[in-house]
Specification:
Residues 1-156 form the SPX domain. It comes from Salix viminalis (Common osier). This is SPX DOMAIN-CONTAINING PROTEIN 3. InterPro entries: SPX_dom, SPX_prot. The chain is built from 9 helices and 2 strands. It is elongated. Helices cover 67% and strands 2% of the residues. The protein is mostly helical.
Amino acid sequence: MKFGKRLKQQVQETLPDWRDKFLSYKELKKLVRLISSAPPFLNGSSEYGKSEAEFVRLLNSEIDKFNAFFMEQEEDFIIRHERIQKVIDTWGATASQPSEAEYKEQMGKIRKDIVNLHGEMVLLENYSNINYTGLAKILKKYDKRTGGLLRLAFIQKVLEEPFFITDLVSKLVKQCENMIDAVFPAEEEEKENEGRETITVAGKGILRNAIAALMTMKEIRRGSSTYSHFSLPPLNLTESDLIPSFQLNSPISVVR
């Protein structure tokens, strides 16, 4: 699948509030086509410099958009993660509960919160991946069609941008998966086979969208004939990796 179609599909599958935060790939592609089809001018001329400067300005504007959104989401995830941990410390399996009914109510809420948080963080990791890939591809098109040499220097800059650095989000994803295993052990599932509570995941199927995001990450990072040192490393996922581990262990079914 062409990258433009893959990006369009991913935008459609993500959360509604996120859809205008992705790379304006189609518009940038049109600009590259417009610049490359203009009357030829020498590399290094003033006209060439103006066109390249405008292209870089638009790319920087896109990066500013990515960074602002990514950091806002990252901060929100930290706050929600801390709030979940506090509830677990208060109501978890090792804590004292005033009543069984109240305990079950609180655990049902926290399971839903963990599922939603995990799904949104996976979506944000994919947001970083797909926007980086789009930038690399549009810069490759620009250099190829105009004879410019923007890609190397620009990508080196991108690698230091906040939206590209996902270490903290990846760490929080793992912690979410560990939370469900630690707080809700597998044997609890047998005790609650009857009367299971159903969680409706907020945001039109966050879990479903997170799985789609994982599949997109795997696809855009797979090795190909166009793979280069500008490409993200392959993401080796088994089929079971596409379903968050806590969903399998949780006694709560998730409506998609």
